[in-house]
Design a protein that fits this description.
This protein has 194 residues and is an alpha+beta fold. 30% of the residues lie in helices and 24% in strands. It holds the Pfam family PLCB1-4-like_EFh.
Length: 194
């Protein structure tokens, strides 16, 4: 074994994860089902979904604790959502289309992100490959450079229509110290307003 070759290779993101897939994201608390496009960024740092309004929500891959599909995925309890997905029909194939991503800072405070694909067995592939990314040893033991790259990737994915990074995204990335962010932006001669 050569000392020049790393023992662990960075995780590879499959092409279909980067290209994205159409899902319906649903929430039992708000009883809202919204069409989204679910993707993983090319470096495998974030699972994110884009709504029809072009609004994006991000989920850090390292915060994912589990992915579930089929009968192990979460089922809607509200009748309104059950009607949307035609769950009460006898020939329904809802279980073949489900995907639940479980995330949280620890194993107690968990959040369930629920998706239903338009095609069968898509949820199974997504669940297996996203969990493989989340459980990769280099994701949990990343270097400082990786964390800087992770921040840059998130900023680059949230560009405004002119192709520039909005200042509010810097403030969202560092919410605890707004004054320090303003000082850093002004020291770099960058705009610090809205």
């Amino acid at each position: 074994m050569s000392l020049l070759n790393p023992v662990l290779q960075p995780p590879g993101v499959k092409a279909y994860l980067s290209q994205g897939e159409r899902f319906i994201r649903w929430d039992d608390e708000t009883t809202i089902a919204s069409p989204v496009i679910l993707r993983v960024d090319p470096k495998g740092y974030y699972l994110y979904w884009t709504y029809q309004s072009k609004e994006m929500e991000f989920l850090d891959i390292t915060s994912i604790r589990d992915t579930r599909f089929g009968k192990f995925a979460k089922m809607p309890k509200s009748q309104k959502l059950r009607d949307v997905f035609n769950m009460d029909l006898p020939d329904n194939n809802f279980l073949l289309k489900t995907l639940t991503v479980v995330s949280g800072p620890d194993m107690v405070d968990l959040t369930f992100h629920n998706f239903v694909s338009y095609k069968e067995n898509v949820g199974k592939d997504w669940a297996e490959d996203v969990l493989a990314l989340a459980k990769h040893p280099l994701m949990a033991n990343a270097s400082r450079g990786t964390f800087l790259d992770k921040g840059l990737v998130k900023l680059k994915m949230q560009l405004n229509p002119e192709g520039k990074i909005p200042v509010k995204n810097f403030f969202q990335m560092f919410p605890a110290d707004r004054k320090r962010v303003e000082a850093a932006l002004s020291a770099c001669h960058l705009p610090k307003g809205k």
